[in-house]
Amino acid sequence: MPSGTRADRARLEQLRDQLNHHLYRYHVLDDPEISDAAYDRLYAELVELEATHPDWVTPDSPTQRVGAEPVPGLAPVTHALPMLSLDNAHGDAELEAFDARLRRFVGRDEPIRYVGEPKYDGIAVELLYEDGLFVQGSTRGDGRVGEDITHNLRTVRSLPLKLRREISGSLEVRAEVFLPIAAFRELNRARLEAGLDPYANPRNSTAGALRQLDPRAAAERPMDLVCYGLGRGAESLSVRSQLELLERLAELGLRVSELVRPCESAAEAIAFHHELAERRDTLPFEIDGSVIKVDDFALRDELGQLNRSPRWAIAFKFPPRQETTRIEDIRTDVGRTGVLTPVAVLEPVQIGGVTVVHASLHNQDEIERLDVRIGDLVFVERAGDVIPKVVKVVHGERPDGTTPYRLPDTCPVCGSATVRLEDEVARRCPNLECPAQIKERLRHFASRRALDIEGLGEKLIDQLVERGDLERPSDIFELDSESLASLDRMGAKSADNLVAAIQRSRHTSLGRLLYGLGMRHVGERIAVVLAERARSLAGLTALTLEELEATDEIGPIIAASVRAFLDDQHNRDEIGRLERELEIEVPVTRKVPRAEVTDKVFVLTGALSAPRESFADRIRAAGGKVSSSVSKKTDFLVAGERAGSKLNKAEELGVRVIDETELEELLRA
Ligand code: IVH
C-alpha cells in the first residue's frame, strides 16, 4: 500500500472511532465533548475519505446510519425467545397484592428486593448483535413474530452499531424506542406549517417512523432508545440480577435508564412509583408508569411465567390522562393566517392534576370524523403538555335535540365570508385586516423565536390593537412610554421596560425577521435558508419565482407563497418601513465559491495568526476542502510558523506550500 493510502486508511479508522465515541458521549451519556459544528467537520472529512475509498466503508461507520436504500417491505422476524408482555397494577393495593402473591408462591416471609424502572411509552424492539456488531432489529409484533426494521433502527443515534466490548456470538438486547417530547413537538410544528395534520402523540409517531420503508423518512424523526433486558445470548454476559445486567449493558455502550432504583421491599417500590409520578411532567420523554421487577435472576427462575407475561414483573400504571366530560360549547378561533380552528369549551375536568377547560377539535373534517356536537359526553386526553384533545364521543349519552356542528360561513371576529380552498382542510377568513389576524400577526412578530420583544404579550397587543395604536409590526417601533403607561395593568416602570425591550429588538437577524413576517409555509428553518439566499430584504424582494424554487430546501409551494407575499403592495410597504426601523444583521455563513479554491484540498499546519478552524471555515465557505493529513491529493499546504512533519511530507510529494498571506489572497480573489 503506498504511504499516502496508508495514511488515508489510518485517518479513516481514526475518524470512525472518534465519531462513534462522540455519538456515544452525546446520545448515550448525554455529556458531549465537542460542539455540533466540530462533529459535523469530522463527519464531512469521513464522508470525503469514504467517497475516495468505497471499499473501506464498514457497517459500523457512522455514515452507514441513513445511507441504506428503501426496503421493498418489512420481512417477518421470529424471536428466538418470545417477547412477553406485562401484567398491570393500577394503584398501591394492586402492587401490594402482587408482592404478596410472589412471596406466597416462593414461600418467603422476608421482603423481596425489586428494581423500579420507568415504563417508557414507546415501541418495544429487539436488537441482535453478532460478534458485537448490530445486524438486525425487529419489532415485538405478536411477541413471537415481529417485523424487520433494521434499516430504521440504524438511524437511532443512541443505538451503537458496534458494542464497546468484545462479545462473541449472538446477543439479543430488548429495548424501548421513543421520540423525545421536544422532537415530537418540533415534528408537529413542521407538519402544521406544511399544512399537514399533526401526529396524535409521540408513541404513534414512533410506531409510524419505525415502519417506514425508506430509512430517510425514519431519520427525520430523531428517536432515542433505552435498553432494559435480554433475549438469546444472556449467558454470555453472566449476570445474576437486573442491576448487574443494566450495568453490563451500559459498559457495552448501550443506553440504559438513569431513573432506575433498587427497592428493598414493596413499600419502597411504591414510594419509587410515586416519586416518578411527581417527576413525570418534567421528563423529556413520555412514561406511562413504572415497571417493578424482581432483581435476583435465580428468584425469577423460581417464579417462572404465566401465559404471556412473567410472574416476576409488573407494569405499575399511572392514572390515565384521559377523562370524560361534557362539551358546553364549540368556539372558533381565528389564527394568524385566518385559519378557523374549532375549540371545544368543556365542563372543567381534572386530568393528571391539571384543570382542563378547552380541547382542540382541529378542523371540520375532524369534527365530522368524531361526529361531535355541543352537549356531547366526550373522552378528553392530555399527552405531555400538548394541547388537550377530544379523542372520542360517547354517542349513547347524546342528549336530545343536538345538531351537527359546522364551522361558520362568516368570520366570528370581522364578519367576512369564510372560504375553504379546494386542496385545504382548513376554512379561512380571507380578510387580511381582520382584527383577529392583525393580533395574531403581531403576537407572532413579537414572539421569542422572531423579534423576541420581552413583555409584549397577548393581553397588551389586544389592548393596543383595540385602541388603534397598533395595526402592523412597524407600528411597534412608534410606541412610547407615555401612551403605554396608560394601558390596563401597566405602570411607568413596566412601560419603560417595554420600550427598552422594543429598542433592543431593533437589532435582529434577517432570519428572525423573515420568520417574524409570518409568511405562509415559512417556519424558522426556511426563514434561515431564505436569509442565506437573499442576504437582505432588498435581495429577497428581487428574487424571482424560479430563483426561489432553485434554492435548496425550497419547493414550489414555499416559493409561490413567498413570491405572493412579496407581490402584495401592502406587504412591500411594510417591508420598507421595517427596513427603516431595524438594524438587520446579515448571515455570515454564505458560500461564495472561488474558482481557485473550489474542490481544492487544503491542509493547515504550524502556528497561524488565528485558530486553524477559523481558516478552515473560510476555506470551506469558499468551496474548498480541508483535510488533516498531507497526501498526493493535497493541493495546498498552508504552513504557519514552526511547521514540522507535514511540511516535510508536502515537499517530498511535491505539494504546493503557501503561507497565510498567500491563503488570504486566494480567499479574497
Ligand atoms: S420489561 C417480560 N421494562 O412495556 C416483559 N418493559 O407491557 C419485559 N416497557 O413490551 C418488559 N419500559 O414495551 C420493561 N423499563 C421497562 C419498560 C418496558 C417500557 C414496555 C415494553 C413491554 C411493555 C410491557
Describe what is shown at a glance.
This protein is an alpha+beta fold and 669 residues long. Helix content is 37%, strand content 19%.
Adjacency order of strands in the biggest sheet: 2-11-10-3-9
Q: What is the CA-atom radius of gyration, in angstroms?
A: 30 Å
Distance between the termini: 38 Å
Task: Give the CATH superfamily of the domain at 76-317.
Answer: DNA ligase/mRNA capping enzyme
Low-confidence stretches: none
What this model shows, in words?
Helices cover 37% and strands 19% of the residues. With 669 residues, it is α+β, with helices and mostly antiparallel strands. The radius of gyration is 30 Å and the shape is flat. Strands 2-11-10-3-9 form a five-stranded mixed beta sheet. The chain has a five-stranded antiparallel beta sheet with strand order 14-13-12-15-16. Strands 5-4-7-8 form a four-stranded antiparallel beta sheet. Among the domains are: 3-64, Helix hairpin bin (Helix Hairpins), CATH 1.10.287.610; 76-317, 2-Layer Sandwich (D-amino Acid Aminotransferase, Chain A, domain 1), CATH 3.30.470.30; 601-668, BRCT domain (Rossmann fold, 3-Layer(aba) Sandwich). Helix 1 runs antiparallel to helix 2 (36-52), helix 12 packs across helix 13 (458-466) and helix 16 (510-516) crosses helix 17. Helix 22 links the parallel strand 21 (601-605) and strand 22 (625-627). 2-(butylsulfanyl)adenosine (IVH) binds at residues 84-86, 117, 119-120, 124, 140, 176, 228-229, 291, 310, 313, 315. 2-(butylsulfanyl)adenosine binds at residues 84-86, 117, 119-120, 124, 140, 176, 228-229, 291, 310, 313, 315.
